[in-house]
Amino acid sequence: MLRRVRDDSARTAAGLGAAVMAASVLSLVVSVVMANLLGPADYADFAALLSVFLVLSIPGTAMQASVARDVAAAGREAEAIASHVRHLARIAALAGAAVVAVAFALRSPLSDVTGTPTEPVATALTIAVAAGWLVVSFQRGALQGVGQLTPVGLTMVAEALGRLVLGIVLVEVGWGVGGAIGGYVATLAALGVVLDVRLPRRPPAAEPVRALLRGATVPGASALLLAVAQNIDIIVVQHVAPSTPAGQYAAASLTGKSVVWLAVGLGLLLLPEASRGAATGDDARPLLLRCLAATGVGAALMLIVLAIDGPALIRLVFGDDYVVSRGLLLALGGAGTALAATTLLTQYLLGVRRVGFLVPLGAGATAVVPSMVLAGPELVSMALAFLAIQVVMAALVGALAAVGSTMRRR
User: Tell me: the pLDDT tens digits for 31-45?
Assistant: First the structure.
């Protein structure tokens, strides 16, 4: 069974990688287009709300990881459990609709909390994006677990393309930041319908909801800590710096962290393979090393481009209003490289059901805000503080993966 699944994974890995890279490029295009359509001040609000979404997406990200590894380890019952997840996703859609209704009722106070008081509707729509993400994450996790990686990759491309096209349309008709976020809501709603059709329809296994929730505890904690460590810097700058520099930092941060998308895509392959290996006694660390090497190549190319003339790249992609120094870009590129490594290491450790890595993740996530505030208000100083934390965190998590046999099993 394991050999068959690995052969299937090998055949689809190239397609998955291509899909993830296409999705990454399209996601960059989304940010570039929105930066030019909205302007630095509104783009700062847009970036802040996306950072809020990334934190709110933790339950969905956790459930995707939990479902993927549980389905992958279930052997002959994999499709039956995936069919059960299909029903859970429908329940999550109904619950999400109720939460979104409450968010619209409380949109003004919520927008004050997010630091975007002029965008109450966009703030409520951000909650809708998080709700849609939860549903799609259930569905993607089930497909990931049964080895259907190509549909997972294609939905990532469709997600980015839908955000781009619908976002442009809604911004151009005058919806501003709310339109940019609303395009994402509509895209996730459409994807949810498509994925529901794609999921297995066998008689569902008697997998209680509480079992999936219990299995999502560690993935949820790791996803939360990673999201905070990866995105909280934009929110800190949003509060510390004026709106225009905050928008410039957001654009630079997106550029420097672009390699994380490659790690996310490779993690879709790594996590279920590590889970299957743990169930059969095989070692998935060789695959982890190959994924790290591939990510390292991508990161090296990015850093070379930023070192040669990063400001010119920003001017070409985002426009003159977003140009920042080469030092800021290199600092954020280094931080993005470390984050990409941490992302892959975390997916491996989740797959083999370890928990010790939560300690350095928690320490790093906790240290981001005070270290950046103390280093501010200069953007480069704040980015260097952010870089230092990411490097230390990646090194510690990597050390735990290297000595995984001594770590406590969950």
Answer: 778 888 888 778 878
